[in-house]
Amino acid sequence: MPTTFDEIRDAVLHMPKGDQVRILSAVALDVADAHPGIDFQENVCGGSARIIRTRIPVWLLESLRRGGRTDAELLAAYPSLNAEDLANAWNYARTHREEMDREIAANGDDS
């Protein structure tokens, strides 16, 4: 069984085109929901989506934004964050609106 990237690439390239397409489709679906800069760990922030390397949940940032806070205000309030972190958070929140609504409601934060 291939175990390295090069071995896997070579194995896939020697497959019939139809199988290559099926593999590509499966991989594309798996990474389509990937969100750079966003992490999930059961034992950190209750498993909620959070900014990587922090304990700042995305739902909290989204709640503050819905409450009228600007990116500049959030960056000043959370000095460990940068503009890229906020962009990642907004992308995640946009594609997971129901989750954000549920977590904001569950945490009683409607800033």
The CATH architecture assignment of the largest domain turns out to be Orthogonal Bundle
CATH topology name of the largest domain, in short, is: Arc Repressor Mutant, subunit A
Number of strand segments? 2
Radius of gyration: 19 Å
Q: Strand count, sense and closure of the main sheet? A: 2 strands, antiparallel
What's the total helix number? 6
CATH class of the largest domain, named Mainly Alpha
| pLDDT < 50 stretches | none
The outline comes out as elongated
What does this protein structure show overall?
Helix content is 58%, strand content 4%. Strands 1-2 form a two-stranded antiparallel sheet. It folds into 2 domains: 1-32; 38-106, Winged helix-like DNA-binding domain superfamily/Winged helix DNA-binding domain (Arc Repressor Mutant, subunit A). The termini are far apart. It has helices spanning 5-13, 17-32, 58-66, 71-77, 83-95, 97-106, and strands spanning 38-39, 50-51. The longest helix is centred in the N-terminal third of the chain and has 16 residues, at 17-32. It has 6 helices and 2 strands; from the N terminus they run ααββαααα. α3 crosses α5 (83-95).
Tell me the layout of helices and strands:
Layout: H1 5-13, H2 17-32, E1 38-39, E2 50-51, H3 58-66, H4 71-77, H5 83-95, H6 97-106
Antiparallel strand pairs: 1-2
Helix pairs in contact: 3-5, 3-6
Which characteristics define this entry?
single chain, 111 residues, mainly alpha, Arc Repressor Mutant, subunit A, two-stranded antiparallel sheet, 6 helices, 4% strand
